[in-house]
Amino acid sequence: MKVWHISDTHMNHGLLTIPDGIDMVIHSGDATNWKDPYRNESELRAFIDWFATLQIPHKIFVPGNHDTSLEKGLIGRDLIEHRKIHLLINEEISIGGLRIWGSPFTPRYGDWSYMRDRGTINRLWDTIPEGLDILITHGPPYGVLDATYNHHNKVELVGCSALRKRLVKVPPRYMLFGHIHSTDDIRNAGTRTVSGLPTVFSNGSCCDDGRMGTVTSHGNILEV
Whole-structure pTM over 0.85, yes or no? Predict the structure, then answer.
């Protein structure tokens, strides 16, 4: 199955080049921008309208920390799934024989949606099942396509270490995420493997920090 993975489109979805011959599209969160859920609602509705019209048989959406109107209940699951989009919030689905599990949660940073404290988020990751073909989370595991500049302008790895530990125990075939964008001199968008793990990792972020009004990556295509 040919999978198109995109993430962190931040209302630039209309600028994406849509590839041909795709069987499944997966968006791993941050379709929107506004923190205020009432302003965010119209953005998320516009994204859902676009996502639903893609001529791709299977569509999955795992929200991110920016998708506040969904967490606050201004947009419900019924509206999304009525458009034939699978919404995954700490749950598993099977499509074409593939086992897929998704979660929008990331370690707490600021006051956004779908966040848990780093000291307790392992309880959520412990529910990730074994034998997955595709694991989707909004944020990356520690040390994998997660480099960025901190407030002191130093490069820091900001992925979730508890998630990395869980992957060692129950490695999926593919892991898809976003959340951490690229910068002018750090490329997080793309795919990679890690020594000691059988998983193919994909950061589908479509924008760069400091260039939020444009598309700098058109996502990743995976043969699953």
Answer: yes
